[in-house]
Write a structure and sequence with these properties.
The complex is a heterodimer. Chain A is of the alpha/beta class. Chain A has helices spanning 44-51, 73-79, 95-105, 112-121, 137-148, 167-182, 194-198, and strands spanning 6-15, 18-28, 33-37, 59-64, 67-68, 80-83, 155-159, 186-191, 203-208, 211-212. The chains are: A alpha/beta, B mainly alpha.
Chain lengths: 219, 226
Amino acid sequence: MSAPAIRVEGLTRRFGRRWALRGVDLEIERGSVVALLGANGTGKTTLLRILSTLLRPTAGEASVLGLDLASDADAIRRRTALMTPTGHVYDELTGVENLRFAARMGEVTASDDDLRAALARVDLADAADLAVRGYSTGMRKRLELARLGLRAPDVVLLDEPFTSLDSTGVDLVQDAIAAWRAAGATVVIASHRTAETGRHADRTVRLARGVIDEAASAP
Amino acid sequence: MSELLRRARAILWKDLLTELRTKQGLSAMLSFAALVIFLFSFAIGPNTTLLARLAGGLIWVAIIFTGTLSLGRAFQTEELAGGVRLLRLYPGDPRAIYLGKLGANLVLLAALEAVLFPAAAVIFQVDLVAHIGPIALVAVLGTIGFSAIGTFFSALTVHAKARELLLPLLLFPALVPVVVGAVGATDAIIGGNAMGRLGGWLQLLAAYDVILFVVCVWIFPVILEE
């Protein structure tokens, strides 16, 4: 039997005197879509940042796809993708240049046509050669979606993917989640927006003050 | 080309493209360097003998002051794009980030020096054209040492609250061997001293460059950890 997509035991993270996570236990099956809900400051972002290897936990253990966070970080990075609320795009580069940079850094072989096709899929074909500095917040989010779509990750971690998006943008994110699910990827969506997040979710996990609120979580 | 160098080249390409688009860093560096050179010449006065004697030191102080401005910006562009640690999410050796940033800093400093050395030669009335080869060698060695440690400290201080103050506080003491070697070598060239003295300064610069480069490349991944 293969290891779960994500396994977390007693995960704790402290920032100075503030506890962001206080002993979180969580197991997520491969290929499932999980909604990670909770108000602002409940530890959702911290959990995703730890699972993506951006942050080290203060205590506890975690593995992604059976790989240990501490010792197999590079292998985890090759198989996971993280969307942050602000995205990871450069203002002075155009949309297609941002994707070219991401492809080179992520060791993805993609032609110029491939990159433009990725932008067209998120309705950014007309803005492909414009500097991102002139993009709206929603356009930046769609560019971030195109960036994640360059690879075929096994685990996708989305942090507030619906924030600042209009209905078309929300639909694009929903379509992307459906495509990842169809491809067999595990998707974790952290958000405080229950309606959009729950649409594809097989399971809901609610965080409150750094711990999982079992009563409010749904299998 | 190895994966490490391919990714370093991607960062170099991205940083230089960003610089070409904004022109903020290079134009600010050139203006600041011109101001420093003019201030030195005004402070010393019209004594051309004294200016020529101090030229080596004044040129390198101008490069260090001006270059520190550029180094401070090297990782700030990453913060505007969500944070330097997001670069860490790409798989592979994180030393590619350091090598790419170092390459971009070297190109920007080379552009600065291509303007600063001729301008200083005119203002300080020293003949650098006759010694273009040795001067270029000193410039290359001095710039590599300066960029190697400067890029490292730029990454180290990027999240500090008072990073504009902290960067020179950390950087300048570590640069003492580079400054001493570069100024000594430049003075030896301008003063027409024997190759023996110049050779010693060049050896010091080259040895310190190797040490700085190896140490910075080795420990760079540690400073990306949160």
